[in-house]
Amino acid sequence: MAKLELLLQKCDSLTHIKQLQAHLLTIGRFQLYPSITIKLLELCALPPITNLPYATTLFHQLQSPSTRHWNAVVRGLAQSLQPTQAVTWYATMSRSSQKVDALTCSFALKACARALALSEAMQIHSQLLRFGFGRDVLLRTTLLDVYAKVGKLGFAQKVFDEMPERDIACWNALVAGLAQGSQPSEALALFERMAEEEGLKPNEVTVLGALSACSQLGALRGGERIHTYIVNAKLDTHVIVCNAVIDMYAKCGFVDRAYEAFENMRCGKNLITWNTMIMAFAMHGDGCKALELFEKMGKNGVCPDAVSYLAALCACNHAGLVEDGVKLFNSMAGSGMVPNVKHYGTVVDLLGRAGRLQEAYEIVKSMPMFPDVVLWQTLLGASKTYGNVEMAEMASRNLVELGSEGCGDFVLLSNVYAAHNRWDDVGRVREAMKRRDVKKIPGFGYIEVEGVIHKFVNGDQNHVNSHEIYSKLDEIKCRIKAYGYVAKTNHVLHDIGEEDKENALSYHCEKLAVAFGLISTDEGTPIQVIKNLRICDDCHVVMKLISEIYNREIIVRDRARFHRFQDGLCSCRDYW
DNA sequence: ACAGCCAAAA
Predict the structure, then answer these.
(1) Is the CB of A276 under 7 A from strand B?
(2) In 10 A of CB A52, how many CB atoms?
(3) Domain segments of chain A: what residues?
(4) Is the minimum distance from the CB of A364 to strand B below 7 Å?
(5) A313 close to A324: Cβ distance less than 8 angstroms
């Protein structure tokens, strides 16, 4: 027995496992040593071996599998590419003679989180209450986490509220859950509550959730405070935390400070550190710096991965470095990289924006995989910019086939027709939109004034200063018109906007936020706005004019990148 | 003595 356990410790491949198993079988002891078979199962079900077919076969050879045997398989399946199988095994187990324990529930719940299986999670929830595990803090945390990950933040909050005692992991799970679930303000509020009410000291996991919330909100003040705390609490010994700090500064509009944090790291950099910084430069349109860093990472012994290439390509795209981008893309194969659909998407965007539509299309045709919705949207956007009707129609057909119901796709196609005075076709697209009940993602934006985050949705009238904001917008309109501004009215948008007039062009959330910034900050202070979608043509023009007429620097972070408006010009050089 | 919370991506 002792000898067997020694052998077991040395098993590091499936061959070894098989040899040991064969040995046990030949001496007729296979069924006799549960502790050995448990270890064997755990070895082959988990990394680095991870051979689940073999694990399940081995399991089926057992005459009376114990709870721990079951758990080994459920755990392995939960971490595998088919987490739903873990749930199936859990269900089979709960019907078998063997008792499910708290760990089985925990593994099955994690599987639900990965498979985004809400109803299964709820079933396991009610079962674990019946089994009497309802007071297990670890299990409750898992439960909270599953609900948050499947998007049921209300349920997660309820699990949290009902906990009589909460340790730091419970708070961390909810802070992270809210941040990941697009409720960054709530995440930050909870983060504050944690220290104030419970006197808990945020750890490296807590600050990750909080920093992510700041990144989303563009909450520089909050981010700075958390950064100070991180340094004081010596949490900056964790690479993962440093990476999140870099990302936070970059997304709050301060690449320089992101780079400063990158340079002054007290711990070693990893692949993600480099990727985050390259992406940061890309977002800010600093193409050359991004490419320099991409070169430098290789020299520092960190091998670029698919994300590094994507970030560098993205940098070329935002900076208009067409030749560099194409060269980089073509160099991928030579470096043993297989471009994925995102790399193709970026290079198609790069060529499309430069007006090289035919080349872009050639690349689409050469792709070894099916183009996705985003890629066709990219091509459609470029076709609109350059007025290529055939290409636009082709992209639209593909979008319809892929079941895309985004409002933007229809609007773009209709704009192409409108530009060619093909009004019958414009009408046809309009009809199709009505028939299909196209979806419109609501636009919203944030602005931080004196450390307070203000949120605006399109056509928002709920802000306390709503009156002043709207009169400021009227004033802006007058002044920019005097400069020759003509609204970039969009026929289709106007047409479908009839029902909700609030969504009209002139009250886009970024305009509201900038107007609020103008009335609530001192002259000369830069105004920074964060938006969830891409900035529209009209807003882009208006921002440029405001920056000139009001002599204000305006920084807008949209879904894709930063736009820095100054003296009537934008840092993207209208290339976006 | 097999559990929970964890950074980047067109």
Answers:
(1) yes
(2) 20
(3) 185-268, 445-570
(4) no
(5) no
